[in-house]
Amino acid sequence: GSGKSTIARALEQKLVLEYGLHVQNLDGDNVRTGLNRDLGFSPADRAESVRRVGEMACLFNAGGVITLVTLVSPYKADRDEARKRHADQGLTFLEVFMDVPLATVQARDPKGLYAKVAAGEIKSFTGVSADAPYEPPPNPEINLPNYKMMVDESVEVLMGELRKHGVLSGGATNPMGLPMPSGFKDFFLEDELAVPKSKRSARLDEAATLPKALLTDIDVNWLQVIGEGWAAPLRGFMREGVLLQTMHFNSLLVDTWNATGAVGLSERQTDWNDYQTRGRERVSMPVPVVLPVTGYTKAAIESSGKKAVTLVDKDGRALAILRNPEIYENRKEEVVTRCFGVIDMGHPYIKHIYTGGDWLLGGEIELLQRITYNDGLDQYRLTPKEMYAAFEEKGADVVFAFQTRNPTHAGHAFLMNTGRERLQARGYKNPVLWLSPLGGWTKEDDVPLDVRVKQHVAILEEKMLDPAWTVLAIWPAPMIYAGPTEVQFHAQSRRNAGASFFVVGRDPAGMKGSLEAVASPDEDLYKGEHGRFVLQMSPVLEDHQMQLISFDKFFYDVKDHKMKAMDPSR
Question: Does the active-site annotation cover 201?
Fold first, then answer.
């Protein structure tokens, strides 16, 4: 009557059918037909029942099986012993207290046992009889007052705790329950790729001796994306094998824990004769993060005898060192057709690709200094690690990201406020909004970044969005206007900075074709519904760390001057 079996079955169904995980439910009814068939209901027998099932749970748990135990276990000492057995073996143990009033349990009475107690047919019954007390856990990991909740709401609470403890991901966890960056082990990628202050002088001296590759403003944007971890687990400009995966699969094979001997596969020189090494999992990586160079730069690198290249900006500043360089042909037409799927030589980023060098330079980077722009907006340029700290300061239990490349208007505010309400309806206590303006290169007729950020600050000051649950932080990547392909990167990179939900509307990352477009001159290059649909089916969502908040059309109501969904009755 406490709801433990009903909720456990619903949780098991979600874990197995949606997440593809292995689950074993050890319920009082199923263990008493075999494992505990020789036991009664005396205190000693109940203790032995908990001991046996606890040992069985340890065996399943150690084998990688999520084990749900739904026994009546009334005594604290017995539960504590089961906890200790798990702790001794380094196994996760979460105690769930079904915090339900006795009157509610008696009213539910799914097996009619409380009725029998009331009729005097059962003399001793846990939690009712003086000789059979129930000892509530004083400090359970999860307190679940399920009499106030629907079954699916209870399941969401349990899923949140499993996520916090790393049970769903099998890897590092965040105490707020936010997703960790793809490929995360022990450190944020920005800490691994940035040269420590103690070694910076020596690295700068080394950089001065190396061949140079000149970066455009767009290249600097991509360097920032890599160096700060927005494209995790990518650690450098793409090698040819990595680019091929991106173009053909919109993803990379990875082996974070070296389960198949393929750890660091993306950092190896492309080997066309290796048909054996293969990562076990895929990470979304839909856009080409590449560094074009000229034939002159290629020749300088190859003739230098060095195993590294200094990356410099247009002012000659050494920004990074690229290690173990791999130079390969810039197959521009193949990149464009695979990534964009349109023929439009007037498209601004396609034009950028075609005007780039005929070679691509791949290799892992060491960032010599933080990328800054000194434009009065650097205070809003937070790294992923800093984003997690900002969310923690707000007390977030979930983060939803909203991307902007235009000033925020009433429609945007409706989406963001409604998105938060939807998350609260799902049981989250404090959803925090990440207001995430595009901060890298954009086409010349887009609203400039400084105008957008100042307008965002103004709407926060006016409380159109509540600053108590909003973090304004610039996203540094350049906009490439690749529609359904690019929106996958938008979502994945926000996940790499702690967002669990991404707000997506009509025609994300799209634009009108230029007058040179073959199929769509001065019309939308991509169908408005395609981006949202593709994102829903993409590898971004495969590990269940990121979900979508999707909106269709909404309208301005002339009666109360508010944005809202269409009311069919009107």
Answer: no
